[in-house]
Amino acid sequence: MPGYMLQKGIDLVTRGVDEDEEHNYEDALRLYEHGVDCFTYAVKYETRSNEEKENIHNMCLTYMDRAKKLKEYLQWAKGNKPVKVHNKGSNRKNSDSISKDSERKKLQEQLTGAIVMEKPNVRWEDIAGLKGAKEALKEAVILPIKFPQLFTGQRKPWRRILLFGPPGTGKSYIAKAVATEAGTSTFFSVSSSDLVSKWLGESE
């Protein structure tokens, strides 16, 4: 028997399909998005088997793809295609500011050197335990990459997660798993000494 949120998601997308067939595209889009929200909650809190999670993920992909097409159509129909505006004056001002700030330039060079060029090869299943940390990182990092349509408007992913604990508890290992699962994202390996202000000293 499906959980409450899973059943609610199924009901919502079913209504969305009905509205879609009646060409009520705005209502269909809203119902699809709410349905996917329910599916995402169900994956995190209501499902246990990997097979069930995979089935829900597939439903998410199906209805998110349809929602994306509806959104593009509605934008086209209203003549409101998003246009990127480049503020050349602001960019030039920022560029001048950066060139004058030697400390900021030095920090940028340090951070550039902190980019991990070699992609790790660690998967979630390679890490024993740490279920809560893995779920939190999936929600904060992986979901926004795979399902960007979920995080629009006021709905935003977490921006920071602190992993803490004594050495040897898997913090670095799980960070490598995030870098692997995140695909083409850029992964930084930064120590505290890379970020220390000159007013506090140049090293730890």
From TrEMBL:
Keywords: ATP-binding, Hydrolase, Nucleotide-binding, Protein transport, Transport. Its EC number is 3.6.4.6. Gene3D superfamilies: P-loop containing nucleotide triphosphate hydrolases, Phosphotransferase system, lactose/cellobiose-type IIA subunit. GO terms for molecular function: ATP binding; ATP hydrolysis activity. Residues 84-104 are annotated as: Disordered. Residues 93-104 have a biased composition (Basic and acidic residues). It catalyses: ATP + H2O = ADP + phosphate + H(+). The keyword Hydrolase applies. SUPFAM superfamilies: MIT domain, P-loop containing nucleoside triphosphate hydrolases. Pfam families: AAA, MIT. InterPro entries: ATPase_AAA_core (IPR003959), MIT_dom (IPR007330), MIT_dom_sf (IPR036181), MT-severing_AAA_ATPase (IPR050304), P-loop_NTPase (IPR027417). GO terms for biological process: endosomal transport; protein transport; vacuole organization. Residues 2-81 form the MIT domain. The keyword Nucleotide-binding applies. PANTHER family: AAA DOMAIN-CONTAINING, VACUOLAR PROTEIN SORTING-ASSOCIATED PROTEIN 4A. This is vesicle-fusing ATPase. It comes from Plectus sambesii. The lineage of its organism: Eukaryota, Metazoa, Ecdysozoa, Nematoda, Chromadorea.
